[in-house]
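The authors assume throughout that readers already know how a fold can be written as discrete tokens. What matters is that the chain and its backbone geometry are given together, residue for residue. A single example would do more here than another paragraph of explanation. For illustration, here is how one protein appears when written out as sequence plus structure tokens.
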Amino acid sequence: MGGTQRPTIKTVAARAGVGRTTVSRVLNGSPLVSAQARAAVLAAIAELNYVPNSVARSLVTSRTHSIALVIPESESRLGGEPYFSAVIRGVSAGLAGTKNQLLLILVRDERELDRLTEFLTAGRVDGVLLVSVHRDDPLPGLLEKLGLPTVLAGRRSPAEPLHHVHSDNVAGASAAVRHLLDRGRATIATIAGPLDMDAGRSRLEGWRRALRAAGRAAEEALIAPADFTEEGGRLAMRELLARRPDLDAVFAASDVMAAGALAELRRQGRRVPGDVALVGYDDSIVARHTDPPLTSVRQPVEEIGRTITGILLQEIAEPGSARRHVVLPTSLIPRDSS
């Protein structure tokens, strides 16, 4: 028949003196290729007049160009907690300029967990970003078992083996309590986050450390765990006031809970900050729109979203890379509530 055979990725790789994976990376614009190898591949493509076939390229890379952002929470938490929208903005920014599309998946019950398991097992996404991690959540273990590239926003514990990114919760909470101590507050309570979450436990630990460093007792009666919701903050504040009516300051482990606490303090005739100083955590839009505006610990939530996305893209491009555990700094933003 005498026709010339169409060049393939294998032909290009042989001409360039590299592996087929390197050719594939050049075709897909991966940064994980040396300048020398990229030049050799591009020269071979030009010499052979190789035209990439998108279907063949998809088969070689086995990519779906889809990333799942999994949030095991209800719609009400997703809509009522500014943290999640900030993470989503950060993830979207991290994917800008790439070919990847973002799938937002909520997991609210066992049925949806089973559906997600089937979806992931079928290879519908290249990797997963998991937000709002609880200590006994089965999802991280499932993702590890599937061998799917995964990065967590948060962690199950300090021993978390998966890639993860979080803010320095202990330092942030400690700074909040030191701020209250510096303003002469004597009885500082805390509305803690859920204690099955590392963020809740770490912010509570920061409260304890700051009090102990100042020679104060970290009394259990001054702790009321809640669930990161406004209603949870309101009920926790009511409980604290009933237990310790002499309290003169509160550190709430989220701005949303602090807003609930503020409403309860006002209902009981306590002036903020005159009678009770109040500090939140997140420095979200909530902190700027309460009356008075909330002093709050700023954590870089959008940066958390961008960072988990960057780590995931690297893991997808270069599977098996060393586990990355990133801790981002926090800062205290003083306002009128303290």
